[in-house]
Amino acid sequence: MSLIVALDPPEGVEGVRWCISLIDRLDNVPAGFKVGLPLIVREGVKGLREVVSVMNTELVIADLKLADIGYVMSLVTRAVAEAGVNTVIAHAFTGTEGALEELLRVCNELGIKLVLVAFMSHLGAAKVMKKVFMDLLDVVKEINAWGAVLPATIPEVVREGRRYLGTAFKILSPGVGAQGAEPGDALCAGADYEIIGRLITRAENPLEATFNVIRKQGERVRACRGT
Ligand code: BMP
Q1: pLDDT tens per residue across span 174-215
Q2: Which of 23, 124, 196, 222 would you label with 10, given CA atoms 20 to 30 Å apart?
Q3: Other beta carbons within 10 Å of 103
Q4: Counting Cβ atoms within 10 Å, is residue 198 exposed (0-12), middle (13-18) or buried (19+)?
Q5: Distance 36 CA to ligand 1 centre (A)
Q6: Protein residue with its CA nearest to atom 19 in ligand 1
Q7: Cβ-based neighbour number of residue 43 at 10 Å
Q8: Which among 22, 195, 201 is the best mutation to test ligand 1's pocket, defined by most ligand atoms within 8 Å of the CB?
Q9: pLDDT, tens digit, for every residue of 138-165?
Q10: CA torsion angle for 92, 93, 96, 99 (degrees, to 10)?
Q11: CA–CA dist 136, 164 (Å, integer)
């Protein structure tokens, strides 16, 4: 299973209820759920805990996009760990000494997987991140993160990331659906998971949309691998 569903409650809904209702409807079919600031800022760690308590997936990701000194990132991580998440996302660009090294120590202590953003999926990211992409991949390697976020919208970046990182790291790729990539694009380029939000969460029938995505991923992967 290569699908992670991003639960970003839209404006005007009650965040906890919105997330729980989707988790319920999706019946733990995806490999994981990712929640982030749109839920946590509005509902706090207490709301996060409520949402996490109904998940029964392999990956329970807090997408905090941490980018601070190690001390502060560690404080935040300890707070969300208490809600039961097993994976945290931080930015790679803060570097190792004084930042990610310390965060990794805390993640290891708490049994949390650390995923680092090495390239983003929106248009403007390419302009800046292209220049430092290899350096960010070096940070992923140096920290020995569990995985890296690389964009489904730019499959060459995923391909290059996979070549450089080898198979010891997971690649998680957002950008499918609302941002333009097709299900399976990133998997064909070497990603382990595609992170998908609105294509599923805003569908009239989210479970049916999930099965459609899984079917398309399978078709695309079979076509690109010639199997
Ligand atoms: P959607 O499929 O609705 O576009 O959602 C994508 C999800 O992936 C969002 O939760 C967003 O925060 C996340 N994401 C992204 O879109 N691009 C990135 O480069 C990194 C992300 O984490």
Answers
A1: 999 999 999 999 999 999 999 999 999 999 999 999 999 999
A2: 124
A3: 28
A4: middle
A5: 10
A6: 120
A7: 21
A8: 195
A9: 999 999 999 999 999 999 999 999 999 9
A10: -90
A11: 11
Question: Which residues neighbour 144 within 8 Å (Cβ) at sequence distance 6 or greater?
Answer: 104
Measured in Å, residue 175 CA sits from the centre of ligand 1 at 6
**C-alpha distance across the termini of the chain, in Å:** 18
- Of residues 224, 122, 223, the one with CA closest to residue 178: 122
Burial 44-64 (b: 16+ CB within 10 A, else e): ebebbbbbbeebebebbbbbb
Q: How far is the CA of 174 from the centre of ligand 1 (A)?
A: 5
- Outline where the chain has alpha helix (H): 15-26, 37-53, 70-81, 101-110, 123-143, 155-165, 185-188, 198-201, 206-225
Q: Which residues contact 208 (CB under 8 A, 6 or more apart)?
A: none
Q: What percent of the chain has pLDDT over 70?
A: 100
Which domains are delineated in the chain? Answer: 3-225 (3.20.20.70)
CB atoms within 10 A of CB 100: 26
Question: Can you tell me the distance from the alpha carbon of 194 to that of 209, in angstroms, rounded to the nearest whole number?
Answer: 14
